[in-house]
Amino acid sequence: MDRRRDRFFPAFSGKKVLPAANSQFAIIASDLGLIFLFIALVSCTPFLVGFWYGELDLLLPMASAPAGFGILGVWLASVAKAEGEAHLSVALSAVALIWLAAALIGALPYMFSLGIPYTDSVFEAMSGWTGTGFSLLPSVDTVPRMILFWRSLTQWMGGLGIVAFTIALAVRSGLTRFQLYRSEGRSEAFMPGVVATATEMWRIYLVLTALGIGLVLLSGISLWDAVNIVMTAISTGGFAVHSAGILYYESPLLEMLVVPVMIAGALPFKLYFILYYRRTFEFFRDSQAILLFALILVGCTAVTFDLVALSSLAPAEALREGIFMTVSGITCTGFQNANPRDWYGATVMVLTALMLIGGSAGSTAGGIKLGRAILGLETLGWWIRRLRAGWRTITPLRHEGRPILEHLPEYEVSKSMLVVVLFILAVAVATLLLLHLVPQGGFDSTDVIFEVVSAISNVGISTGLVNPGMSPGAKWLFIIVMWAGRLEIVPVIALAARATRRL
Asked: Do residues 332 and 266 touch, judged by C-beta distance below 8 A?
Protein backbone atom coordinates (compact mmCIF):
# COMPACT_ATOMS: atom_id res chain seq x y z
CA MET A 1 0.00 0.00 0.00
CA ASP A 2 2.85 2.40 0.88
CA ARG A 3 4.61 1.72 -2.40
CA ARG A 4 1.43 2.36 -4.37
CA ARG A 5 0.82 5.54 -2.39
CA ASP A 6 4.37 6.77 -3.13
CA ARG A 7 3.92 5.94 -6.77
CA PHE A 8 0.62 7.77 -7.26
CA PHE A 9 1.11 10.41 -4.52
CA PRO A 10 4.89 11.10 -4.55
CA ALA A 11 4.48 14.10 -2.29
CA PHE A 12 4.00 11.63 0.61
CA SER A 13 7.22 9.76 -0.16
CA GLY A 14 9.58 12.39 1.23
CA LYS A 15 11.11 12.96 -2.21
CA LYS A 16 10.97 16.20 -4.15
CA VAL A 17 8.59 16.10 -7.11
CA LEU A 18 9.74 17.69 -10.34
CA PRO A 19 7.63 18.79 -13.30
CA ALA A 20 7.60 16.55 -16.35
CA ALA A 21 9.86 19.00 -18.16
CA ASN A 22 12.62 18.18 -15.68
CA SER A 23 12.27 14.40 -15.97
CA GLN A 24 15.68 14.10 -17.61
CA PHE A 25 17.26 15.80 -14.60
CA ALA A 26 15.30 13.53 -12.26
CA ILE A 27 16.72 10.44 -13.98
CA ILE A 28 20.27 11.47 -13.24
CA ALA A 29 19.99 13.59 -10.06
CA SER A 30 20.32 10.79 -7.49
CA ASP A 31 23.52 9.52 -9.11
CA LEU A 32 24.93 13.05 -9.11
CA GLY A 33 23.98 13.36 -5.45
CA LEU A 34 25.84 10.14 -4.66
CA ILE A 35 28.94 11.44 -6.43
CA PHE A 36 28.96 14.70 -4.45
CA LEU A 37 28.38 12.86 -1.17
CA PHE A 38 31.41 10.67 -1.85
CA ILE A 39 33.48 13.75 -2.72
CA ALA A 40 32.37 15.30 0.57
CA LEU A 41 33.51 12.20 2.43
CA VAL A 42 36.96 12.12 0.79
CA SER A 43 37.27 15.90 1.26
CA CYS A 44 37.47 15.31 5.02
CA THR A 45 40.90 13.67 4.61
CA PRO A 46 42.84 16.96 5.05
CA PHE A 47 41.46 17.15 8.61
CA LEU A 48 43.88 14.34 9.52
CA VAL A 49 46.77 16.50 8.31
CA GLY A 50 45.42 19.45 10.29
CA PHE A 51 45.22 17.43 13.50
CA TRP A 52 48.69 15.91 12.95
CA TYR A 53 50.41 19.26 12.38
CA GLY A 54 48.32 21.22 14.90
CA GLU A 55 46.61 23.49 12.38
CA LEU A 56 43.35 23.44 14.33
CA ASP A 57 42.50 27.04 13.43
CA LEU A 58 42.09 25.96 9.79
CA LEU A 59 39.59 23.18 10.46
CA LEU A 60 36.60 25.47 9.98
CA PRO A 61 37.80 27.03 6.67
CA MET A 62 38.68 23.56 5.39
CA ALA A 63 35.25 22.28 6.42
CA SER A 64 33.67 24.61 3.84
CA ALA A 65 34.52 22.16 1.05
CA PRO A 66 33.03 18.93 2.48
CA ALA A 67 30.07 20.96 3.79
CA GLY A 68 29.42 22.44 0.35
CA PHE A 69 29.71 19.09 -1.39
CA GLY A 70 27.56 17.45 1.28
CA ILE A 71 24.75 20.00 1.04
CA LEU A 72 24.71 19.75 -2.75
CA GLY A 73 24.79 15.96 -2.59
CA VAL A 74 21.91 15.74 -0.11
CA TRP A 75 19.80 18.11 -2.21
CA LEU A 76 20.39 16.13 -5.42
CA ALA A 77 19.83 12.79 -3.68
CA SER A 78 16.47 14.05 -2.38
CA VAL A 79 15.11 14.48 -5.90
CA ALA A 80 12.56 11.80 -6.78
CA LYS A 81 14.21 9.47 -9.28
CA ALA A 82 12.42 9.16 -12.61
CA GLU A 83 12.47 5.99 -14.66
CA GLY A 84 13.92 5.94 -18.13
CA GLU A 85 17.18 6.56 -19.95
CA ALA A 86 18.90 9.92 -19.81
CA HIS A 87 19.78 11.50 -23.12
CA LEU A 88 23.46 11.55 -24.03
CA SER A 89 23.45 15.36 -23.99
CA VAL A 90 22.13 15.26 -20.41
CA ALA A 91 24.91 12.92 -19.29
CA LEU A 92 27.51 15.08 -21.01
CA SER A 93 26.11 18.25 -19.43
CA ALA A 94 25.94 16.60 -16.02
CA VAL A 95 29.62 15.63 -16.12
CA ALA A 96 30.59 19.18 -17.14
CA LEU A 97 28.55 20.51 -14.20
CA ILE A 98 30.18 18.05 -11.78
CA TRP A 99 33.63 19.34 -12.64
CA LEU A 100 32.53 22.97 -12.56
CA ALA A 101 30.86 22.53 -9.17
CA ALA A 102 33.96 20.75 -7.88
CA ALA A 103 36.04 23.82 -8.70
CA LEU A 104 33.50 26.36 -7.40
CA ILE A 105 33.11 24.54 -4.07
CA GLY A 106 36.72 23.33 -3.87
CA ALA A 107 37.82 26.97 -4.03
CA LEU A 108 36.28 27.81 -0.64
CA PRO A 109 39.18 26.54 1.55
CA TYR A 110 41.64 28.70 -0.40
CA MET A 111 39.50 31.81 -0.04
CA PHE A 112 38.64 31.35 3.65
CA SER A 113 42.05 30.17 4.87
CA LEU A 114 44.43 32.19 2.66
CA GLY A 115 42.28 35.27 2.04
CA ILE A 116 42.88 35.27 -1.71
CA PRO A 117 40.16 36.48 -4.12
CA TYR A 118 37.46 34.02 -5.14
CA THR A 119 38.54 34.14 -8.80
CA ASP A 120 42.08 33.12 -7.85
CA SER A 121 40.65 30.42 -5.57
CA VAL A 122 38.50 28.97 -8.37
CA PHE A 123 41.54 29.07 -10.66
CA GLU A 124 43.58 27.14 -8.09
CA ALA A 125 40.78 24.63 -7.55
CA MET A 126 40.14 24.08 -11.27
CA SER A 127 43.87 23.68 -11.84
CA GLY A 128 43.89 21.08 -9.08
CA TRP A 129 40.87 19.02 -10.11
CA THR A 130 41.88 19.02 -13.79
CA GLY A 131 45.48 18.09 -12.97
CA THR A 132 46.85 21.17 -14.70
CA GLY A 133 49.27 22.45 -12.09
CA PHE A 134 49.09 26.20 -12.78
CA SER A 135 49.07 28.18 -9.55
CA LEU A 136 48.20 31.73 -8.57
CA LEU A 137 49.30 31.41 -4.94
CA PRO A 138 51.73 34.25 -4.10
CA SER A 139 53.99 31.93 -2.04
CA VAL A 140 53.42 28.21 -1.76
CA ASP A 141 56.07 27.95 0.98
CA THR A 142 53.90 29.94 3.42
CA VAL A 143 50.70 27.94 2.78
CA PRO A 144 49.58 25.72 5.71
CA ARG A 145 50.10 22.00 5.23
CA MET A 146 46.40 21.23 5.42
CA ILE A 147 45.74 23.42 2.37
CA LEU A 148 48.79 22.04 0.56
CA PHE A 149 47.44 18.54 1.08
CA TRP A 150 44.03 19.68 -0.19
CA ARG A 151 45.74 20.84 -3.40
CA SER A 152 47.49 17.49 -3.80
CA LEU A 153 44.32 15.57 -2.96
CA THR A 154 42.26 17.36 -5.60
CA GLN A 155 44.86 16.45 -8.22
CA TRP A 156 44.99 12.86 -7.02
CA MET A 157 41.20 12.48 -7.20
CA GLY A 158 40.89 14.43 -10.43
CA GLY A 159 43.63 12.40 -12.10
CA LEU A 160 41.56 9.24 -11.92
CA GLY A 161 38.46 11.23 -12.85
CA ILE A 162 35.86 12.52 -10.42
CA VAL A 163 33.16 10.21 -11.78
CA ALA A 164 35.53 7.23 -12.09
CA PHE A 165 36.89 7.86 -8.58
CA THR A 166 33.52 8.12 -6.88
CA ILE A 167 31.59 5.56 -8.91
CA ALA A 168 33.95 2.87 -7.62
CA LEU A 169 32.28 3.31 -4.23
CA ALA A 170 28.83 2.56 -5.64
CA VAL A 171 27.14 -0.75 -4.99
CA ARG A 172 26.10 -1.69 -8.50
CA SER A 173 26.44 -0.67 -12.12
CA GLY A 174 23.69 1.09 -13.98
CA LEU A 175 22.95 2.70 -17.31
CA THR A 176 23.12 6.19 -15.86
CA ARG A 177 26.50 5.56 -14.23
CA PHE A 178 27.76 4.04 -17.47
CA GLN A 179 26.70 7.19 -19.36
CA LEU A 180 28.39 9.45 -16.80
CA TYR A 181 31.55 7.33 -16.91
CA ARG A 182 31.77 7.47 -20.72
CA SER A 183 30.87 11.17 -20.79
CA GLU A 184 33.91 11.93 -18.64
CA GLY A 185 36.13 10.74 -21.49
CA ARG A 186 36.63 7.22 -20.13
CA SER A 187 36.46 4.29 -22.55
CA GLU A 188 38.40 1.54 -20.80
CA ALA A 189 36.29 -1.41 -19.68
CA PHE A 190 38.47 -4.34 -18.61
CA MET A 191 35.79 -5.57 -16.19
CA PRO A 192 32.07 -6.20 -16.73
CA GLY A 193 30.28 -3.06 -15.52
CA VAL A 194 31.62 0.42 -14.84
CA VAL A 195 31.62 -0.04 -11.06
CA ALA A 196 33.87 -3.10 -11.33
CA THR A 197 36.15 -1.31 -13.80
CA ALA A 198 36.35 1.82 -11.63
CA THR A 199 37.06 -0.31 -8.55
CA GLU A 200 39.99 -2.03 -10.28
CA MET A 201 41.30 1.33 -11.49
CA TRP A 202 41.13 2.60 -7.91
CA ARG A 203 43.10 -0.39 -6.61
CA ILE A 204 45.72 0.03 -9.33
CA TYR A 205 45.91 3.74 -8.51
CA LEU A 206 46.52 3.09 -4.81
CA VAL A 207 49.22 0.50 -5.54
CA LEU A 208 50.99 2.81 -8.02
CA THR A 209 50.84 5.65 -5.49
CA ALA A 210 52.32 3.50 -2.71
CA LEU A 211 55.10 2.17 -4.98
CA GLY A 212 55.86 5.70 -6.15
CA ILE A 213 56.21 6.98 -2.60
CA GLY A 214 58.64 4.18 -1.80
CA LEU A 215 60.68 4.97 -4.92
CA VAL A 216 60.84 8.74 -4.33
CA LEU A 217 61.86 8.25 -0.69
CA LEU A 218 65.14 6.80 -2.00
CA SER A 219 66.15 10.37 -2.86
CA GLY A 220 66.32 11.23 0.84
CA ILE A 221 63.46 13.74 1.00
CA SER A 222 60.93 13.70 3.84
CA LEU A 223 57.83 11.49 3.85
CA TRP A 224 55.59 14.58 3.67
CA ASP A 225 57.29 15.83 0.51
CA ALA A 226 57.37 12.35 -1.03
CA VAL A 227 53.65 11.76 -0.47
CA ASN A 228 52.66 15.08 -2.05
CA ILE A 229 55.08 14.76 -4.97
CA VAL A 230 53.88 11.25 -5.83
CA MET A 231 50.19 12.13 -5.45
CA THR A 232 50.63 14.89 -8.02
CA ALA A 233 53.04 12.91 -10.22
CA ILE A 234 50.99 9.71 -10.58
CA SER A 235 47.93 11.88 -11.30
CA THR A 236 50.05 13.80 -13.84
CA GLY A 237 49.08 16.98 -12.00
CA GLY A 238 52.25 18.85 -11.06
CA PHE A 239 51.40 20.78 -7.88
CA ALA A 240 54.38 21.14 -5.52
CA VAL A 241 54.69 22.02 -1.84
CA HIS A 242 57.35 24.67 -2.51
CA SER A 243 57.29 27.77 -4.70
CA ALA A 244 60.42 26.61 -6.54
CA GLY A 245 58.76 23.32 -7.38
CA ILE A 246 60.99 20.33 -7.97
CA LEU A 247 64.03 22.62 -8.20
CA TYR A 248 63.68 23.39 -4.48
CA TYR A 249 65.40 20.09 -3.66
CA GLU A 250 68.38 20.64 -6.02
CA SER A 251 68.47 16.88 -6.54
CA PRO A 252 69.03 15.34 -9.98
CA LEU A 253 68.44 11.96 -8.32
CA LEU A 254 64.95 13.01 -7.20
CA GLU A 255 64.13 14.25 -10.69
CA MET A 256 65.16 10.95 -12.26
CA LEU A 257 63.16 9.00 -9.65
CA VAL A 258 60.06 11.08 -10.42
CA VAL A 259 60.37 10.33 -14.17
CA PRO A 260 59.11 6.71 -13.97
CA VAL A 261 56.25 7.82 -11.69
CA MET A 262 55.11 10.36 -14.29
CA ILE A 263 55.36 7.75 -17.04
CA ALA A 264 53.39 5.26 -14.93
CA GLY A 265 50.51 7.74 -14.69
CA ALA A 266 50.48 8.29 -18.47
CA LEU A 267 50.32 4.59 -19.44
CA PRO A 268 46.97 2.82 -20.00
CA PHE A 269 45.71 1.40 -16.72
CA LYS A 270 44.55 -1.74 -18.49
CA LEU A 271 48.22 -2.76 -18.82
CA TYR A 272 48.57 -2.92 -15.03
CA PHE A 273 45.35 -4.94 -14.84
CA ILE A 274 46.68 -7.41 -17.42
CA LEU A 275 50.02 -7.60 -15.62
CA TYR A 276 48.43 -8.43 -12.26
CA TYR A 277 45.59 -10.73 -13.25
CA ARG A 278 47.00 -12.42 -16.33
CA ARG A 279 50.70 -12.22 -15.44
CA THR A 280 51.35 -10.88 -18.94
CA PHE A 281 53.75 -8.00 -19.63
CA GLU A 282 52.11 -6.03 -22.46
CA PHE A 283 53.96 -2.73 -22.07
CA PHE A 284 56.01 -3.24 -25.23
CA ARG A 285 53.09 -4.69 -27.20
CA ASP A 286 50.49 -2.02 -26.57
CA SER A 287 50.47 0.56 -29.37
CA GLN A 288 49.94 3.53 -27.03
CA ALA A 289 52.77 2.48 -24.72
CA ILE A 290 55.12 1.97 -27.68
CA LEU A 291 54.27 5.39 -29.10
CA LEU A 292 54.69 7.01 -25.67
CA PHE A 293 58.18 5.56 -25.23
CA ALA A 294 59.07 6.46 -28.83
CA LEU A 295 57.98 10.08 -28.42
CA ILE A 296 59.85 10.35 -25.12
CA LEU A 297 63.01 9.13 -26.85
CA VAL A 298 62.58 11.43 -29.84
CA GLY A 299 61.58 14.38 -27.66
CA CYS A 300 64.51 13.93 -25.27
CA THR A 301 66.91 13.75 -28.18
CA ALA A 302 65.51 16.84 -29.89
CA VAL A 303 65.29 18.98 -26.74
CA THR A 304 68.73 17.95 -25.49
CA PHE A 305 70.30 18.64 -28.89
CA ASP A 306 68.65 22.08 -29.06
CA LEU A 307 69.75 22.99 -25.54
CA VAL A 308 73.35 22.12 -26.39
CA ALA A 309 73.44 23.56 -29.90
CA LEU A 310 71.20 26.61 -29.50
CA SER A 311 71.25 27.44 -25.78
CA SER A 312 74.89 26.46 -25.19
CA LEU A 313 74.10 24.36 -22.11
CA ALA A 314 76.62 21.82 -20.86
CA PRO A 315 75.71 18.35 -22.22
CA ALA A 316 75.01 16.92 -18.74
CA GLU A 317 72.70 19.80 -17.80
CA ALA A 318 71.01 19.71 -21.21
CA LEU A 319 70.37 15.98 -20.83
CA ARG A 320 68.96 16.50 -17.34
CA GLU A 321 66.55 19.18 -18.54
CA GLY A 322 65.79 17.32 -21.77
CA ILE A 323 64.75 14.08 -20.07
CA PHE A 324 62.75 15.65 -17.25
CA MET A 325 60.96 18.35 -19.25
CA THR A 326 60.13 16.00 -22.13
CA VAL A 327 58.61 13.39 -19.83
CA SER A 328 56.80 16.06 -17.82
CA GLY A 329 55.41 17.57 -21.02
CA ILE A 330 54.16 14.49 -22.84
CA THR A 331 52.74 12.91 -19.67
CA CYS A 332 51.02 16.27 -18.95
CA THR A 333 52.45 16.35 -15.41
CA GLY A 334 53.79 19.90 -15.35
CA PHE A 335 56.83 19.58 -13.09
CA GLN A 336 59.65 21.87 -14.22
CA ASN A 337 63.40 21.84 -13.76
CA ALA A 338 63.79 24.61 -16.35
CA ASN A 339 61.90 27.64 -17.65
CA PRO A 340 60.89 27.28 -21.32
CA ARG A 341 61.04 31.06 -21.62
CA ASP A 342 64.84 30.71 -21.53
CA TRP A 343 64.75 28.30 -24.48
CA TYR A 344 64.81 29.07 -28.19
CA GLY A 345 61.48 29.05 -30.04
CA ALA A 346 62.22 25.79 -31.86
CA THR A 347 62.79 23.95 -28.58
CA VAL A 348 59.61 25.40 -27.10
CA MET A 349 57.57 24.24 -30.11
CA VAL A 350 58.86 20.67 -29.71
CA LEU A 351 57.63 20.66 -26.12
CA THR A 352 54.36 22.30 -27.21
CA ALA A 353 53.70 19.52 -29.72
CA LEU A 354 54.39 16.84 -27.11
CA MET A 355 52.03 18.52 -24.61
CA LEU A 356 49.26 18.76 -27.19
CA ILE A 357 49.52 15.04 -28.01
CA GLY A 358 49.55 14.07 -24.33
CA GLY A 359 49.52 10.62 -22.76
CA SER A 360 47.53 7.45 -23.27
CA ALA A 361 43.77 7.06 -23.32
CA GLY A 362 42.73 5.29 -20.13
CA SER A 363 45.45 7.00 -18.09
CA THR A 364 45.57 10.09 -15.87
CA ALA A 365 47.23 12.21 -18.59
CA GLY A 366 45.56 14.94 -20.62
CA GLY A 367 46.00 16.17 -24.16
CA ILE A 368 44.53 14.84 -27.39
CA LYS A 369 45.70 11.33 -26.36
CA LEU A 370 48.03 8.89 -28.06
CA GLY A 371 45.12 6.65 -29.05
CA ARG A 372 43.75 9.34 -31.34
CA ALA A 373 47.17 9.99 -32.82
CA ILE A 374 47.48 6.27 -33.58
CA LEU A 375 43.99 6.17 -35.09
CA GLY A 376 44.90 9.13 -37.27
CA LEU A 377 48.02 7.35 -38.57
CA GLU A 378 46.08 4.13 -39.13
CA THR A 379 43.41 6.06 -41.02
CA LEU A 380 46.03 7.68 -43.23
CA GLY A 381 47.41 4.25 -44.10
CA TRP A 382 43.85 2.98 -44.68
CA TRP A 383 43.09 5.77 -47.13
CA ILE A 384 46.32 5.10 -49.03
CA ARG A 385 45.47 1.39 -49.27
CA ARG A 386 41.97 2.24 -50.50
CA LEU A 387 43.39 4.52 -53.18
CA ARG A 388 45.71 1.77 -54.38
CA ALA A 389 43.10 -1.01 -54.26
CA GLY A 390 40.28 1.05 -55.74
CA TRP A 391 37.11 2.34 -54.14
CA ARG A 392 35.08 -0.74 -55.03
CA THR A 393 37.40 -3.03 -53.08
CA ILE A 394 36.49 -3.56 -49.42
CA THR A 395 39.48 -2.43 -47.37
CA PRO A 396 38.94 -2.82 -43.60
CA LEU A 397 40.42 -0.32 -41.18
CA ARG A 398 42.33 -2.12 -38.45
CA HIS A 399 42.61 -0.51 -35.03
CA GLU A 400 44.33 -2.09 -32.02
CA GLY A 401 44.85 -5.22 -34.10
CA ARG A 402 41.14 -5.67 -34.87
CA PRO A 403 39.28 -4.80 -38.08
CA ILE A 404 36.56 -2.15 -37.80
CA LEU A 405 33.41 -3.14 -39.64
CA GLU A 406 32.93 -1.75 -43.13
CA HIS A 407 30.28 0.83 -42.19
CA LEU A 408 32.06 2.05 -39.05
CA PRO A 409 35.49 3.45 -40.08
CA GLU A 410 34.17 6.87 -41.09
CA TYR A 411 32.15 7.11 -37.86
CA GLU A 412 35.01 6.04 -35.57
CA VAL A 413 37.49 8.31 -37.30
CA SER A 414 35.18 11.33 -37.43
CA LYS A 415 34.35 10.93 -33.72
CA SER A 416 38.04 10.94 -32.75
CA MET A 417 39.08 13.61 -35.22
CA LEU A 418 36.27 15.86 -33.95
CA VAL A 419 38.07 16.09 -30.59
CA VAL A 420 41.36 16.86 -32.36
CA VAL A 421 39.75 19.64 -34.39
CA LEU A 422 38.03 21.06 -31.30
CA PHE A 423 41.33 21.09 -29.39
CA ILE A 424 43.10 22.98 -32.17
CA LEU A 425 40.17 25.38 -32.61
CA ALA A 426 40.03 26.03 -28.86
CA VAL A 427 43.78 26.76 -28.79
CA ALA A 428 43.38 29.25 -31.66
CA VAL A 429 40.40 31.07 -30.13
CA ALA A 430 41.90 31.18 -26.62
CA THR A 431 45.21 32.46 -27.99
CA LEU A 432 43.51 35.31 -29.85
CA LEU A 433 41.54 36.28 -26.75
CA LEU A 434 44.59 36.15 -24.49
CA LEU A 435 46.61 38.33 -26.85
CA HIS A 436 44.02 41.03 -26.11
CA LEU A 437 43.65 40.28 -22.39
CA VAL A 438 47.27 39.82 -21.32
CA PRO A 439 49.74 42.73 -21.51
CA GLN A 440 52.78 41.75 -23.53
CA GLY A 441 55.37 42.48 -20.82
CA GLY A 442 58.10 40.62 -22.69
CA PHE A 443 55.84 37.70 -23.66
CA ASP A 444 55.35 37.06 -27.37
CA SER A 445 52.73 35.04 -29.24
CA THR A 446 54.82 31.86 -28.88
CA ASP A 447 54.62 32.15 -25.10
CA VAL A 448 50.85 32.68 -25.26
CA ILE A 449 50.35 29.63 -27.51
CA PHE A 450 52.55 27.58 -25.19
CA GLU A 451 50.52 28.57 -22.11
CA VAL A 452 47.20 27.85 -23.83
CA VAL A 453 48.35 24.41 -24.96
CA SER A 454 49.67 23.78 -21.45
CA ALA A 455 46.24 24.71 -20.05
CA ILE A 456 44.03 22.80 -22.47
CA SER A 457 46.23 19.70 -22.21
CA ASN A 458 46.21 20.07 -18.40
CA VAL A 459 49.99 20.19 -18.16
CA GLY A 460 50.87 23.28 -16.13
CA ILE A 461 54.35 24.00 -17.44
CA SER A 462 54.60 27.78 -17.62
CA THR A 463 56.85 30.46 -19.02
CA GLY A 464 55.63 32.83 -16.29
CA LEU A 465 52.70 34.30 -18.22
CA VAL A 466 50.25 32.72 -15.77
CA ASN A 467 50.64 34.78 -12.59
CA PRO A 468 48.50 36.47 -9.91
CA GLY A 469 48.77 39.79 -11.75
CA MET A 470 46.73 38.62 -14.74
CA SER A 471 43.42 40.33 -15.38
CA PRO A 472 40.26 38.60 -14.07
CA GLY A 473 39.17 38.02 -17.67
CA ALA A 474 42.39 36.16 -18.47
CA LYS A 475 42.06 34.08 -15.30
CA TRP A 476 38.50 33.02 -16.12
CA LEU A 477 39.52 32.24 -19.67
CA PHE A 478 42.22 29.90 -18.34
CA ILE A 479 39.67 28.35 -15.96
CA ILE A 480 37.37 27.58 -18.90
CA VAL A 481 40.23 26.25 -21.03
CA MET A 482 41.45 23.92 -18.26
CA TRP A 483 37.90 22.71 -17.62
CA ALA A 484 37.13 22.12 -21.29
CA GLY A 485 40.46 20.42 -21.94
CA ARG A 486 40.06 17.94 -19.08
CA LEU A 487 36.65 16.86 -20.41
CA GLU A 488 37.81 16.86 -24.05
CA ILE A 489 35.58 19.87 -24.81
CA VAL A 490 32.42 18.05 -25.96
CA PRO A 491 30.68 17.94 -22.52
CA VAL A 492 31.28 21.68 -22.06
CA ILE A 493 29.77 22.38 -25.50
CA ALA A 494 26.78 20.17 -24.61
CA LEU A 495 26.27 22.09 -21.36
CA ALA A 496 26.52 25.45 -23.15
CA ALA A 497 24.04 24.30 -25.80
CA ARG A 498 21.49 23.17 -23.21
CA ALA A 499 21.92 26.38 -21.23
CA THR A 500 21.46 28.47 -24.39
CA ARG A 501 18.25 26.66 -25.27
CA ARG A 502 16.79 27.53 -21.84
CA LEU A 503 17.59 31.24 -22.10
From this structure: yes
pLDDT (tens digit, 9 = 90+) per residue, 36-79?
999 999 999 999 999 999 999 999 999 999 999 999 999 998 88
C-alpha dihedral over 114, 115, 118, 121, to 10 degrees? -10
H/E element, 27: helix 23-42
Q: Is 449 strand, coil or helix?
A: helix
Which residues in 390-419 are b (16+ Cβ under 10 Å) and which e? eeeeebebebeeeebeeeebeeebeebeeb
Question: Which DSSP category does 488 fall into?
Answer: T
Q: What whole-number distance in Å separates Cα of residue 112 and Cα of residue 58?
A: 9
In tens, the pLDDT along 151-161 reads 999 999 998 87
Distance in angstroms (rounded) separating the CA atoms of residues 59 and 43: 12
DSSP H or E stretch at residue 215:
helix 194-216
Q: Which DSSP state fits 16?
A: B
pLDDT per residue over 318-336, tens digit each? Answer: 999 999 999 999 999 999 9
- Give the whole-angstrom CA distance, residue 350 versus residue 80: 52
Burial of 313 from C-beta contacts in 10 A (0-12 / 13-18 / 19+)? buried
The per-residue b/e assignment along 149-170, b for 16 or more CB within 10 angstroms, e otherwise, is bbbbbbbbbbbbbbbbbbbbbb
